[in-house]
């Protein structure tokens, strides 16, 4: 075995745990930092490999990016994947846990109700913004916009519709167009 | 019993729900999937609690899906609920992403893969929009609500300002307006 898998695991932990605490506004905020650390600082991946791992991480279900998991795996197999995933997700989870406990103490106060009511429209705006930002970043252009609008309309018209068939339809449609 | 959540829900049910969510929530936009499943379908949490958790979570670093999962698990069943929900959410994608990585290492990339991912992305964006619009109609529709939501979309979605300062300015404004409305009503 290469010199010190233990060293590699420690390095993964030291890279991903601080990034967990820097990812304000969601996981996308630190992707540039992850790239920098993986490519230039630690030489865990080449640029090409990083781009591929990024695309693969988006093909998997679950929270935003399982990029940390894939990089950990590339560096040190399953133990690497476990260490990177834990380091990336647990610190932020602990912070939220503490925040909810504090928040619970105010329950029932006038402030609590006002905060819940006042924040709801901002949260709704953040949802809409998330969709817009991803749409604008998509290289595929208007077909993606059109498909996104059709999906939105379908889900508003039939709220009970499960999204997975819609995802499959989108995948099939775009895949088919690419083949023809 | 706590306000804003159903009476304590068993750990096994929490684990199963989040395991299923982790394995089916393709394309990112985890918050929209959580809203759909936990609030709309299972009714384990009310609208206002979910949305305020989501907005308050913006002040804390980390993936939105992870933060919401901890918040929801905690509200449903305390510390154990949070831990079980988090593990449940991650264990499926962890296995799947490694399987995809291994398959990819064997096969290599194909251009059609990008097209298929675009199709998935479009549908997920639709889901995100539908969630935002739906939650807007639920939360006391009115001029204040619409203005705050529109301001958020303008700053974050259109002008692409960073989320944290935008929320830091709009959140106190929204809270103040809600307090004023409450005093009047």
Estimate the helix proportion of chain A, in percent.
over 70%
Largest sheet of chain A: none
Distance between the termini of chain A: 48 Å
Structural class of chain A, by secondary structure, is mainly alpha
The SSE string of chain A, one letter per element, is HHHHHHH
Shape of chain A: flat
Helix/strand order of chain B, N-terminal first? HHHHHHH
Radius of gyration based on Cα positions of chain B: 18 Å
Determine the structural class of chain B based on helices, strands and strand pairing: mainly alpha
Q: Which bin fits the share of residues in helices of chain B?
A: over 70%
Indicate the proportion of strand residues of chain B: under 5%
Q: Count up the helices of chain A.
A: 7
How much of the sequence lies in strands of chain A comes to under 5%
Q: Low-confidence spans of chain B: pLDDT under 50, at least 5 residues?
A: 1-5
Task: Give the oligomeric state of the chains in this entry, treating copies of one chain as homo and distinct chains as hetero.
Answer: heterodimer
**Overall 3D shape of chain B:** globular
**Greatest interface:** A-B, 99 and 114 residues
By DSSP, the count of extended strands of chain B is 0
Q: What's the rounded overall pLDDT mean of chain B? A: 85
Instruction: Please give the largest β-sheet of chain B.
Output: none
């Amino acid at each position: 075995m290469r010199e010190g898998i233990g060293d590699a695991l420690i390095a993964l932990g030291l890279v991903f745990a601080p990034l967990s605490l820097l990812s304000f506004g969601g996981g996308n905020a630190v992707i540039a930092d992850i790239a920098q650390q993986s490519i230039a600082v630690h030489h865990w991946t080449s640029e090409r490999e990083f781009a591929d791992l990024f695309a693969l991480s988006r093909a998997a279900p679950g929270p935003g990016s399982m990029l940390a998991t894939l990089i950990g795996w590339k560096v040190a197999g399953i133990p690497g994947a476990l260490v990177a995933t834990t380091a990336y997700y647990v610190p932020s989870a602990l912070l939220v846990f503490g925040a909810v406990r504090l928040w619970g103490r105010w329950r029932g106060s006038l402030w609590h109700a006002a905060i819940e009511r006042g924040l709801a429209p901002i949260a709704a705006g953040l949802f809409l913004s998330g969709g817009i930002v991803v749409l604008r970043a998509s290289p595929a252009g208007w077909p993606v916009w059109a498909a996104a609008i059709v999906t939105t309309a379908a889900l508003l018209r039939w709220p009970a519709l499960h999204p997975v068939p819609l995802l499959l339809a989108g995948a099939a449609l775009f895949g088919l167009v690419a083949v023809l | 019993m706590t306000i804003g959540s159903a009476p304590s829900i068993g750990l096994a049910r929490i684990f199963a729900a989040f395991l299923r969510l982790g394995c089916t929530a393709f394309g990112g936009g985890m918050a929209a999937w959580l809203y759909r499943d936990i609030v709309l379908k299972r009714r384990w949490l009310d609208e206002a609690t979910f949305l305020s958790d989501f907005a308050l979570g913006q002040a804390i670093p980390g993936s939105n899906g992870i933060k919401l999962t901890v918040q929801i698990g905690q509200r449903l069943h305390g510390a154990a609920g949070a831990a079980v929900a988090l593990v449940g959410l991650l264990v499926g994608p962890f296995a799947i992403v490694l399987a995809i990585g291994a398959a990819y290492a064997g096969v290599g990339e194909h251009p059609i893969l990008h097209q298929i991912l675009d199709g998935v992305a479009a549908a997920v964006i639709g889901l995100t929009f539908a969630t935002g619009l739906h939650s807007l109609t639920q939360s006391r529709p009115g001029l204040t609500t619409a203005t705050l939501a529109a301001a958020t979309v303008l700053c974050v979605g259109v002008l692409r300002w960073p989320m944290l300062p935008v929320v830091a300015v709009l959140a106190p404004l929204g809270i103040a307006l809600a307090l004023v409305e409450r005093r009047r009503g």
